Amino acid sequence: MSNLHDTLHAVTQRVIQKSRGSRSRYLELIKREADNQPDRNAVSCSNLAHAYAGAEEDQKALMAHKGPNIGIVSAYNDMLSAHQPYGRYPERLKIYAREVGATAQVAGATPAMCDGVTQGENGMELSLFSRDVIALSTGVALSHAMYDGALMLGICDKIVPGLLIGALRFGHLPAIFVPSGPMPSGISNKQKQATRQLYAEGRATRAELLASEIGSYHSPGTCTFYGTANSNQMMMEMMGLHIPGAAFIQPGTKLRQALDREAVHRVAAIGLDGNDYRPIGRCVDEKAIINAAVGLLATGGSTNHAIHIPAMARAAGVQLDWTDLSELSSVVPLLARVYPNGSGDVNHFHDAGGMGYVIKELLGAGLAHQDVLTVGDSDLSRYGEEPGLDGDALTWREVGKSGDDTMLRPASDPFQKDGGMRLVEGNLGRATFKTSAVSEDRYTVEAPCRVFDRQEDVTAAFQAGELDRDVVVVVRFQGPRANGMPELHSLTPPLAVLQDRGYKVALVTDGRMSGASGKVPAAIHCTPEALGGGPLAKLQTGDVIRLCANTGALSTPADLDSRPAAPDPVADDGFGRELFAMFRSHADGAEQGGSSMLAQAGL
Questions:
Q1: Which of 51, 104, 242, 541 has the greatest CB tally within 10 Å of its CB?
Q2: Which residues form the Dihydroxy-acid/6-phosphogluconate dehydratase N-terminal domain (predicted)?
């Protein structure tokens, strides 16, 4: 594009240069795999019989090998509201495949845990590493070499990154991601947030809190706040891995079904044997990864993707770090305010213009790469339109102006001139600071710290009144190697209460927060992590910490070099956590993606 922004161009070129060796090796791998893709006519008849025995009405078509066979990798379970609709998808997808002379089989299933259910519970310590397990499960699903393409059924937090990492290691195959869409809007987000804070202060009962939460999370479909799950869907649009505009169409609608149908027809058309070969390993290149990062910044998406984007990039041989994200953030304007950064949810966002509007604006401002290979029939420009139906036919049309300028604004008049995700660093390490949800007068906090090794102790100290002052709360030993890097989202209500009481409050942690991290200034994902002697392990209660989003400071005047580190805690067992000891012991840092699998694979 001739109007590409100078900083976007410079960061892209730097990423391309950093990735030259690893990307070249990756492309050689997928070319070799494509060349070695077995001709099923030459595969042992015994092998084929095992693969075809359960195919029922598709068995004859498979035996004739007249069309592509599509592998469905599903993260279905009916405990996740977002994934509950997938229960009936396989039969529909098989019908859509037959319409174009193809076949489809469920290649495998992946686990799909919900951070909303495990939040603050022991199971959250398995959450980040579930991404590696999902990637491994996807690899197992596609290992049978029976497939000419793949459909990825997944939406939520670690699930889409895990599916993508696994699919990229079979990057010679085309793959399309198929979302199921968000649930209808429930009670207002303002009402939900108010009840949470009342409960944190002891002024609402548990029954009142539960009634409020169920009023928000109430039916099949993705949770409607703009957290990690919906940020995943945004990124799949920005990378061109959805059928254009598929992200936020609700379950059970005719348009949702039309988009699902198009995904099947399209993956059948872009395989190796056709005239429009679009393997996912070619679609996900340096420019696509940059587009994902730009979309994250432009929409104020989940901070979890400061970890997931580098991990997904590595699986495609692309090297991206927090310096790249921070430089992009300096020029990518904030175009969207979606709860918890605004009052409306993703349904309101979609109705106001949604991803089509965001992509159109970014392309017009030279802040996204149009010339990427998408799974659609064009470049990224089609993703800057919105889907609709003309009778039963799927069509796309121009988005037009924002339908709600309190939620969506043009690049010429954004909510903020920057993308709201900044790198902070100093003698306490490197960390991520999400400014898009934080008032600018809170960008700088300098105060004595209170050091905790467990998030439960923060809540206890709050309830005892011990934090009623200006304070930087440090929660350490929460990194990948310590305990699997759980989200600490449950800290937000008490810290928000302290902030509302007029105190200067900040959080510093080597743990994670999500897209729901809220309005409290926080330096999160601190790396190196405390385990093994990282800087946070040398802090003592009372040390003054300066956290400043404006200058990028994360530091203390305390002489850390002269101090011994606090002893490493022993990882808790029970609740299956002992089974993940290998993942913890081999995990790399948060900036690299916090993955043991990728580290051990040398990626």
A1: 104
A2: 68-380
CA–CA gap between residue 109 and residue 86 (Å, rounded): 11
Contact assessment for residue 266 and residue 243, using Cβ atoms and an 8 Å cutoff: yes
Structure tokens at 150: 């793949």
What count of other Cβ atoms lies within 10 Å of the Cβ of residue 183?
Answer: 24
Q: Count the neighbouring beta carbons within 10 Å of the beta carbon of residue 263.
A: 23
What are the residue boundaries of the structural domains of the chain, listed by start?
Answer: 6-36+67-184+219-398, 192-218, 421-569
DSSP letter at 460 equals H
Here the tokens at position 562 are 């002269």
pLDDT in tens, 390-401: 999 999 999 999
- Tell me which of 140 and 570 has the higher pLDDT: 140
CA distance 603 to 601: 6
Whole-angstrom distance between the N-terminal and C-terminal Cα of the chain? 31
Closest CA to 69 of 36, 34, 101: 101
Q: Considering the entire predicted model, what is its pTM? A: 0.95
CATH topology of domain 421-569: Glucose Oxidase; domain 1 (3.50.30)
Distance CA 23, CA 30 (A): 11
Q: What amino acid occupies position 159?
A: I
pLDDT at 508: 97
Kindly state the DSSP code that residue 240 receives in the 8-state scheme: T
One-letter amino acid identity for 124?
A: M
DSSP 8-state assignment for residue 572 = P
Q: Is 114 annotated as a binding residue?
A: no
User: β-strand 175-177 against 149-153: which pairing, if any?
Assistant: parallel
Confidence class for position 1, pLDDT limits 50, 70, 90 = very low
Question: Can you tell me the distance from the alpha carbon of 473 to that of 483, in angstroms, rounded to the nearest whole number?
Answer: 19
Q: Enumerate residues 6+ apart whose C-beta is below 8 A from 275.
A: none
Residue 56 has φ and ψ, to the nearest 5°, of 50, -115
Q: Which is it for the CA torsion 594, 596, 597, 600, positive or negative?
A: positive
**410 near 400, Cβ under 8 Å?**
no
φ and ψ of 373, to 5 deg:
-85, 110
Q: What is the rounded CA–CA span in Å between residue 99 and residue 265?
A: 8
Is residue 156 marked as binding? yes
Burial classification of residue 323, based on how many CB atoms lie within 10 Å of its CB (0-12 exposed, 13-18 middle, 19 or more buried): middle
**Degrees (nearest 5) of the Cα angle 158, 164, 166?**
100
Pairing verdict, β 471-475 and 505-509: parallel
